Amino acid sequence: MFLTRVRLNPKRAKTRALLDNRYIGHALVESCTDGTERTLWRVGEVSRDHVDVFMYTQVRPSVHPLVEQCGWPEQFDETVRIGSVGTVLDQVQEGDKFRFAVQVSPQKRSGSVSRALTRDEDVREWFATREEGWGFTTGGEFRLPRVGRAPYQKRGGKRVDFASAEVVGVLTVTDVVAFRAAVQGGLGRTKHAGFGMLLLGAL
């Protein structure tokens, strides 16, 4: 499994389109693989100087299409970082602690209808009640720096504004198998729109 960070140029039209419509981001990220796997991805830091995009892939991605359209092709080696995280996941043990950040799209289903959750208290409940299934616990101690909506519109299609929440904190691994599956498969739904990618950092 590979973790990739691509630094994009915010002055380029395609980068601005990616930020304005996650469908564009989905298409750009999928162009970096052979299309046989679902790529986890997310937008990271956004500033006037750069925009970071992260992705998890099972095979080493070819990010040249993304860089050509959104980045600095002449600075490829300086703006692209690709590394294997398989060894790190293999070494995870119960009780290990990590700093984490994840963008999720919380929804509550009632029959066949899904309701987007955009209030802090609803997001907190949604996240906390799913931690056990994801193989970790935060003890309810996590921050929500941003809660709102993110636009997604296919070309010529109806616009959908997905619920969007950034969750940041420290987690403790409680179930190694479930935790690895959560990292590899993502948290929650709407992963194609840039949600669910769990970024981990050492304490």
Description:
With 203 residues, the protein is an alpha+beta fold. Helices cover 28% and strands 35% of the residues. It has helices spanning 13-20, 22-30, 64-70, 76-79, 86-90, 120-128, 131-134, 176-185, and strands at residues 2-8, 40-46, 51-57, 80-84, 97-104, 107-110, 113-116, 136-137, 142-152, 160-173, 199-201. β6 (107-110) and β7 form a beta hairpin. The radius of gyration is 17 Å and the shape is globular.
Attribute tags:
5-stranded antiparallel β-sheet; alpha+beta; 203 residues; 4-stranded antiparallel β-sheet; 28% helix; globular; 8 helices
Short description:
With 203 residues, the protein is of the alpha+beta class. The protein is built from eight helices and eleven strands.
Strand content: 35-45%
**How many strand elements?**
11
- Tell me, rounded to a whole number, the average pLDDT: 92
Distance between the termini: 22 Å
Q: Low-confidence spans: pLDDT under 50, at least 5 residues?
A: none
Write the SSE topology.
Layout: E1 2-8, H1 13-20, H2 22-30, E2 40-46, E3 51-57, H3 64-70, H4 76-79, E4 80-84, H5 86-90, E5 97-104, E6 107-110, E7 113-116, H6 120-128, H7 131-134, E8 136-137, E9 142-152, E10 160-173, H8 176-185, E11 199-201
Antiparallel strand pairs: 1-3, 1-4, 2-3, 5-10, 5-11, 6-7, 8-10, 9-10
Helix pairs in contact: 1-2
